[in-house]
Amino acid sequence: MSDIIVPGFKSSELIAELNKSFESFTPEEKAKLLKQVNGIFQFTIKNKNGKEEIFIVDCKKEGKVSRGKGSIKPNAILILKDEDFVALATGKLVGQKAYMTGKLKIKGQIMLAMKLDNVFKTIQLPSAKL
């Protein structure tokens, strides 16, 4: 089991899948994604029990995912509930709608957050598992 997966956080399973995808990319594929997105995202996710987890998705320098704040300064901080992250990552919730309805809060570069679709589309999410 990955150190990214956290019991009680469905989103952590998807974030772990994202990390697996990054690891399986060829250097060329990874370089293309990093050039296309060019940003570091911090996801602050709250589950149904009120617990909070932080995940960093680096799409700027290394193309990897980590759990916890770490030393990398994010360009965009996205704050949302666990179930809303799952809906967003699987395409069941549109980012703009989530933001406009208050399900998604963004600090930092809001325009960068719009590139998240590119990140989620590059991976094969196990949506059937959810």
TrEMBL record:
Q: Which InterPro entries would you find in this protein's record?
A: SCP2_sterol-bd_dom, SCP2_sterol-bd_dom_sf
A Gene Ontology cellular-component term: cytosol
Q: Which SUPFAM superfamilies match?
A: SCP-like
Q: Where is the SCP2 domain?
A: 22-121
- PANTHER family membership: SCP2 STEROL-BINDING DOMAIN-CONTAINING PROTEIN 1 (PTHR10094:SF25), STEROL CARRIER PROTEIN 2 SCP-2 FAMILY PROTEIN (PTHR10094)
The entry's protein name is SCP2 domain-containing protein
Origin organism is Mucor circinelloides f. circinelloides (strain 1006PhL)
